[in-house]
Structures are given as C-alpha cells and as structure tokens.
UniProtKB/TrEMBL annotation:
EC number per UniProt: 4.3.2.7
Name this protein carries in UniProt: Gamma-glutamylcyclotransferase
Gene3D superfamilies in the record: Gamma-glutamyl cyclotransferase-like (3.10.490.10)
GO molecular function, one term: glutathione specific gamma-glutamylcyclotransferase activity
CDD domains xrefs: GGCT_like
Origin organism lineage: Eukaryota, Metazoa, Chordata, Craniata, Vertebrata
Length: 230
C-alpha cells in the first residue's frame, strides 16, 4: 500500500517500491466430477481394475474411451513381476483412431478419498502410473459421455518398457509372477473381459499376445502345470 505524506509545505517523498507480488498458490489437483452429482467421481479401469477394483464404489459401467489404444508396454516389478523379471501390464497410448474398452466406477462421498488413497499406492507408487482425464462412453448410452480419471503409464516413468513384438511380450508374460499372481492370469482375465463386451470390442494387440501365448504355452510347461498358472 502507498504511504500518504503528512508534511504540508514540502513535496511528498517518493513512495517506497512495493515488493513484487507473490505468485498465487498452485490450485490443488482437480479430478473430473460427475456434472449430475458434484460429490461423485468416475474412475476408468482398463487393466486389472476391470475385474479387481478392490475399492468401494457406488456404480459401474462398461464402455470405452476414444483416442487411446491399450498396450502391454509397462513393466511391473510388484504385482505381476519382480525386480529381476518385470512383468508386462497395460497402459494407454494416444492414438487418434484408437478405442479402449474398460469399466468406469463411480465413487461418492467418503468413497472418493478412500479410492484415491488406495489407487495412489496401487497404481502410482507401486505401478508408476500418472492420472489423466478421459472421456468415457458407456456401452448402453454412448450418447451420454462422462469425464473420468484414468491411470496412465508414460514413457517418463522408470518402469516403462515400451514396444516389443507380441511374441516377445508373450514370452515375458509366461515367465513372470508377482505378489498379485502370475502375469499370464492378468493377460487371460483381460481377454475374458473383452469377450464379455461383445464383438464390437476389439483389441488386436491383446488378441495377438493371447494367440502367441497359446502357441508357446505347451513348450513352456506340461498341460497340468499350464492350467495351474491360471
């Protein structure tokens, strides 16, 4: 604030320079909310979250996001692999022509903070994923899209493995196991989910890895041991 001079017969002294204003504090991270329910948040799962969310939720919808393709390009040293033998799990790759099917979960009230706290450990701390806002289209009402939070592994995270031939990915999946189970279980559960979505749900990358695993599995272990993996 400028200081007014009280002297009557002398010109006022030059006001002291005001310090540069401090930049406003950064706003807290914003999560997409359901316009029809400000207390609700939608979370989009496209990997293990489609069959094992492990957090309380109020509603769930099967559907898809456009502009992304699912890829087994993220390494996993905890859930489906180890430090010495990282497993392969999925992330989203920006792709103008892409379409990825999954499940959106609605959390409300206290469920919001509990779900985000849990997922921060599961997906961010242990998985190397960041959050991203996506537009989700429910399978039954695609004309009523909604904003959702998705966990995406980018090339900047230390666990990112990147592209590889489907046969090489299949070999890695067959060899790896983590605290959540065998990497093969992860692959097959995801493939089962896609079948339940119907013929309109396509994922050529996933299908190619499943085919490669089917060809290689008898070479890795006898039939009885193969069944035990899943």
């Amino acid at each position: 604030m400028k200081q007014e001079s009280t002297a009557q017969n002398t010109p006022p002294a030059s006001p002291p320079l005001s310090p540069a204003p401090s930049p406003p504090p950064s706003p807290p991270a914003q999560h997409p909310r359901d316009d029809s329910d400000p207390q609700a948040l939608w979370i989009f799962g496209y990997g293990s979250l489609v069959w094992r969310p492990d957090f309380a939720y109020s509603d769930s919808l099967v559907g898809f996001v456009r502009g992304y393709s699912r890829r087994f390009w993220q390494g996993d040293t905890f859930h489906r692999g180890s430090d010495k033998m990282p497993g392969r799990v999925v992330t989203l790759l920006e792709d103008r022509e892409g379409c990825t099917w999954g499940v959106a979960y609605q959390v409300r009230g206290e469920q919001v903070s509990e779900a985000l706290k849990y997922l921060n450990v599961r997906e961010a701390v242990l998985g190397g994923y960041d959050t991203k806002e996506v537009t989700f289209y429910p399978q039954d009402t695609p004309d009523q899209p909604l904003k959702a939070l998705a966990y995406v592994a980018t090339p900047q995270n230390p666990g990112y493995l990147g592209p590889a031939p489907e046969e090489a990915i299949a070999t890695q999946i067959l060899a790896c196991r983590g605290f959540s189970g065998h990497n093969l279980e992860y692959l097959l559960r995801l493939a089962d989910f896609m079948q339940l979505c119907g013929p309109q749900a396509q994922d050529e990358h996933l299908a190619a890895i499943v085919d490669a695993v089917g060809t290689m599995l008898p070479c890795f272990c006898p039939t009885e041991q193969a069944l035990a993996l899943v």
